[in-house]
Design brief:
alpha/beta; Rossmann fold; four-stranded antiparallel beta sheet; four-stranded parallel beta sheet; 7 helices; globular
């Protein structure tokens, strides 16, 4: 059984149905993906038709409350990194928020986890006490991925980084995300350089 699968997924009226599967630990790159594919796979936008299965469970049949529980293991990183994180917040706080939301942090634990996540994505731990607004767009994108990885997801969907990260930096970002994800599956939507 696949970790993740989409079967006959229709994203928009008249769109060609999409089917794909991802095994645990697999890295899949889809260069010419539909702009709404990532959001539909993460059920942030409901597809018109089809199934999205994660660990054998049909996510399209779940309520929003039930989906919230699944999203800890299925992390989506997409959108404008300049808007996704609060500018006045420190990077440490931005990275630790998911741990607090999902009640995964014990005493002293968050700092160690966020430092490890930051390092794996090429973010110096000296940046953790700086405001997010002082970081470049590329560093913010790396921060978004690090934030998702603090939750130890089973699948990471990285959507359209090329819209915010220079083409010359994309191969390094993909290499860093691939190395940092551990055993998680990775679906990269967009060009790689």
């Amino acid at each position: 059984m696949s970790l993740f699968a989409a079967t006959s997924l229709v994203i928009a009226p008249g769109a060609t149905p999409i089917s794909l599967s991802i095994e645990p630990g697999e890295v899949r790159v889809m260069v010419d993906a539909h702009p709404e594919l990532g959001r539909s796979l993460a059920l942030l936008k409901r597809p018109q038709a089809g199934q999205v299965l994660y660990d054998g469970q049909d996510l399209t049949r779940l309520t929003e409350g039930a989906l919230r529980k699944v999203r800890r293991r299925l992390q989506y990183v997409g959108g404008d990194p300049r808007r996704a994180l609060l500018s006045q917040q420190t990077l440490a706080r931005a990275l630790s928020e998911p741990l607090a939301i999902h009640k995964l942090a014990g005493p002293g634990d968050p700092r160690q986890r966020i430092e490890a996540a930051a390092r794996t994505l090429g973010l110096s731990v000296t940046l953790l006490d700086r405001s997010v607004g002082s970081l470049s767009t590329t560093l913010r994108w790396r921060a978004l991925v690090a934030r998702a990885l603090t939750l130890d997801p089973g699948l990471l969907i990285v959507d359209s980084p090329a819209a915010y990260v220079g083409a010359a930096l994309l191969p390094g970002l993909l290499a860093d995300v691939t190395a940092a994800r551990g055993a998680a599956g990775l679906l990269w939507l967009g060009p790689v350089g």
